Every structure is written in C-alpha cells, then in structure tokens.
Amino acid sequence: MRSYPKAEVPLELQTAAEKHAWWTEYRKKHQGVLHDVHFHRVVLDEAQAIKNYKSYTSIACRALMGEHKWALSGTPIQNGTEELYPYFKFLRVPNTGSFRVFKENFCGKDRVKIQRLATFLSKFMIRRTHLDRLFGAPLVQLPKTSEHMHLCTFNDVSHDMARLRPILLTAK
Predict the structure, then answer these.
(1) Which of 35, 80, 123, 147 would bridge 31 by S-S if both were Cys, CB 3.0 to 4.6 A apart?
(2) In the chain, helix, strand, coil percent, each to 5?
C-alpha cells in the first residue's frame, strides 16, 4: 500500500483524458519501488484481503505489474459473489468490465448469471481440498487429530475472574 500513491484528482480537471494524463504523471513521480517493477510473477497469499474492491489494499495490489499473477485464498467468498470482482481485475480476466458491469453479468440468483460465472471461474480457478489426490497419493498429509486434557489450577486472581465472568458478560 505504501508503494502506491494516494491522491485526489484536482477538481479543475474535467475530462477523462485530462484526469488520466494527470494521474499517469502523478503516479510516476510518487509511486514506490514495488509499483515501478514489472515482475515475472506476482502471488497474493491470503488474497481475500483484496475482496473489497474500493479498499486501498485492493487498489494497490491490482496496480502491481506482472507477467503472471496468482491469487491464493482459503476463503475467497464470504458474503457474496461481488467479492470476486477484485480477483478478476487482479488476474486480468478479460471481458469483466467495471464493477457495475461485473454485477450485471455475474451476480445474483439468475441461472444464466450463475452459469456464466461458473464458466469464467473454470478457466482460471483451481480448487483443492485435503481429500484430493495426485498419482494416488494425498496432496497434503494432515496429522491425525488428537485430544488432550489439561487440568489447570487457578491462582486467586484467576479464580476471582472466573467467578465474575458471568456477571461481566451480562453487564451493559
């Protein structure tokens, strides 16, 4: 985020061309080294951090330049399919348009929109679970779960806090 300049477009600039020219010049002068480099590969781990397309984090990540881009997430959608828009823009998925166009084409309960979204996602999204196998072997070996019971003794302060906890939770 610190590498990507943050600025308000001056009010005297009226046309899109004027605003674009101003932003191009401003960005060149004020951007940090991360946004100066054209990377071979850009990988966003925990990519759900960009799900709000208006957030500064999302804007800065989408502005990174790279030949190949990857977005990794264990929880890509939490609230709705609108959260996929920043992933589409970061990954440069063609024909996704603005946020308004994206919502019109991919979001909602309409079967056509759901199918269209599924078709687009199938082109670039890989979903893996702990049950997936490669050459007959699990992709990930998770340790067996085990349960351990530990008895804890309270000191005087802990004992008093445990006794007061129900009172603290109900107090307003």
Answers:
(1) 35
(2) 45, 10, 45
Q: Which domain holds residue 70?
A: 38-127
Residues 157 and 53: their CA atoms lie apart, in Å, by 47
55: in domain: yes
pLDDT digits (tens, 9 = 90+) for 125-170: 888 888 888 899 888 887 888 888 888 777 777 766 666 655 545 5
DSSP 75-125: -S-SS-GGGGHHHHHHTT-TT--SHHHHHHHH-SS-HHHHHHHHHHHHHH-
Could you report the per-residue pLDDT of 14-32, keeping only the tens digit for each?
A: 999 999 999 999 999 999 9
- 129 vs 44, more confident: 44
Is 30 part of a structural domain of the chain?
no
Residue 89, Cβ density class (10 Å: 0-12 exposed, 13-18 middle, ≥19 buried) = buried
| 57, part of any domain | yes
Instruction: Report the C-alpha gap between 58 and 47 in whole angstroms.
Output: 9
Predicted local distance difference test score (pLDDT) of residue 172: 46
pTM, whole model, 2 decimals?
0.73
Q: How many domains does the chain have?
A: 1
| Sign of the dihedral through C-alpha 28, 34, 39, 41 | negative
Can you tell me the distance from the alpha carbon of 112 to that of 110, in angstroms, rounded to the nearest whole number?
5
